[in-house]
TrEMBL record:
It comes from Spirosoma pollinicola. NCBIfam families: T6A_YeaZ. This is N(6)-L-threonylcarbamoyladenine synthase. GO terms for molecular function: metal ion binding; tRNA N(6)-L-threonylcarbamoyladenine synthase activity. It comes from the Bacteria. Pfam families: TsaD.
Length: 235
């Protein structure tokens, strides 16, 4: 038996999950927390991790590995999640597992659609840009993660071949542009990044010993952080 802690702070949702892993087909969710807040702090995240482990009847020393959503997503959020996960790995001498945020979002919905549908999770990246990727119904990545500016021709190569399901907080801005295509599907459900599916994919990675170098690992930002210069005061 192995115990896995997973964290996801790639958007405004701060989530923590705790799984018991026995095999690739036997992974049980022991508990999860999700906070829909505008601000996430490392202190808040550390408290949630400690609480969920304690309330599940274990202690941090018993943890087998720590998983984190590596991105894409919010620059600040990813920094907090990854730095917290790395700090715990160093303190507890445990391995680090990193999971693509979009892959974990796809994991939430893939069981609900036919095998010939494609899945396109999207995270809002401001203006008309989204972070997105395309996955098959069995979880394979068929179009790599990218930052994409949406227009009327977006995804036309895929949509002309098969049905594509668009979801996530970046999907709504696409609906008015490509929603009229008969193969474009926009479910009326909110699909947000969650540590629960980070943990599910992390269990598979754990079983295959797919670990990161804790010292050198960095979040998958996908694009450079753009700071806004403060306006000069007028006197």
């Amino acid at each position: 038996m192995s115990l896995l802690i997973s964290v996801d702070t790639s958007t405004t949702v701060c989530s923590v999950a705790f799984h018991r892993y026995n095999s690739l087909i036997d992974c049980t969710l022991l508990g999860s927390y999700e906070l829909f807040t505008e601000r996430t702090s490392s202190a808040m995240l550390t408290t949630l991790i400690s609480d969920i482990v304690t309330q599940s009847g274990y202690n941090l020393a018993e943890i087998s590995a720590i998983a984190v959503a590596k991105g894409p997503g919010s620059y600040t959020g990813l920094r907090i999640g990854v730095s917290t996960a790395k700090g715990l790995c160093f303190a507890l001498d445990k391995p680090l597992i990193a999971i693509n945020t979009l892959a974990a979002m796809s994991e939430q919905v893939r069981a609900y659609f036919p095998a010939d549908y494609l899945l396109c999770p999207m995270i809002d990246a401001r203006r008309m840009e989204v972070y997105c990727a395309i996955y098959s119904a069995d979880g394979r990545e068929v179009q790599q993660t990218s930052a994409k500016v949406i227009d009327e021709q977006s995804f036309s190569d895929w949509l002309d071949k098969t049905r594509v399901v668009f979801f996530g907080d970046g999907a709504e801005k696409c609906r008015s542009l490509i929603g009229s295509h008969p193969n474009a599907i926009f479910p009326d459900i909110a699909v947000l990044p969650s540590a629960r599916t980070i943990g599910q994919l992390a269990a598979q990675a754990f079983g295959q010993s797919q670990f990161e170098n804790v010292a050198t690992f960095e979040p998958f930002y996908l694009k450079d952080f753009m700071a806004i210069k403060p306006k000069k005061a007028m006197f």
